[in-house]
Amino acid sequence: MRPDSHEIYGRRRSRNVGLGIVLGALVLLIFAVTIVKLSQGQSMEGFDHQIRPTLLPATEPAE
Fold it and tell me: How far apart are the C-alpha atoms of 44 and 37, rounded to whole Å?
């Protein structure tokens, strides 16, 4: 009898495969959300202590 043929190793392997699939799906989901946000042209500006004209409220031109 091989040491890895016990039933506990089979259960452990199936749990590891399941966990690997779940983690892979999470990575793919985060990647897909990132690609969608970038392709839609969303503003990805971060907080860098600078005044950005794109974040200021629109003002009407002076007449």
Answer: 9
Ordered DSSP codes for 13-60: HHHHHHHHHHHHHHHHHHHHHHHHHHHTT-------S---GGGSPP-P
Tokens of 8: 């506990």
Per residue in 3-61, pLDDT (tens digit) is 667 888 888 999 999 999 999 999 999 999 988 888 877 566 666 677 777 777 777 76
Q: Find, among 35, 63, 14, 46, the residue nearest to 54 by Cα.
A: 46
> How buried is residue 38: exposed, middle or buried, by Cβ count under 10 Å (0-12/13-18/19+)?
exposed
pTM: 0.56
